[in-house]
Specification:
CATH topology: Ubiquitin-like (UB roll)
Radius of gyration: 12 Å
Number of helices: 2
Shape: globular
Bound molecules: FE2/S2 (inorganic) cluster
């Protein structure tokens, strides 16, 4: 997508805006949200987070096609969002 999107954090109630050229991971880190990560490029699976609502635009190399189709998890270092908002279990 060409525009940014919003990430709602279900546990903290925070909402973080992800600019179009950024990533969910770096937007969260910039907002002071502590999240685990390692490779930052969709390879390791460390940054996997459960999706509560919204549709991920998967760009990782970790999830299988079946896992992608469920839209239940997202690798936040590299994947985007289809639409303008996603809610994560954070
Ligand atoms: S940090 Fe490795 S897949 Fe996201």
């Amino acid at each position: 997508m060409s525009e940014g999107f919003k990430v709602k954090l279900a546990r903290s109630g925070q909402t973080v805006t992800v600019e179009k050229d950024s990533s969910i991971l770096f937007a969260l880190l910039d907002a002071g949200v502590s999240v685990p990560y390692s490779c930052s490029s969709g390879l390791c699976g460390t940054c996997e987070v459960d999706v509560l609502s919204g549709t991920p635009d998967h760009k990782d190399f970790v999830l299988t096609e079946e896992e992608r189709a469920t839209n239940r998890t997202i690798m936040i270092c590299c994947s985007g969002v289809i639409g303008d908002e996603i809610e994560l279990d954070l």
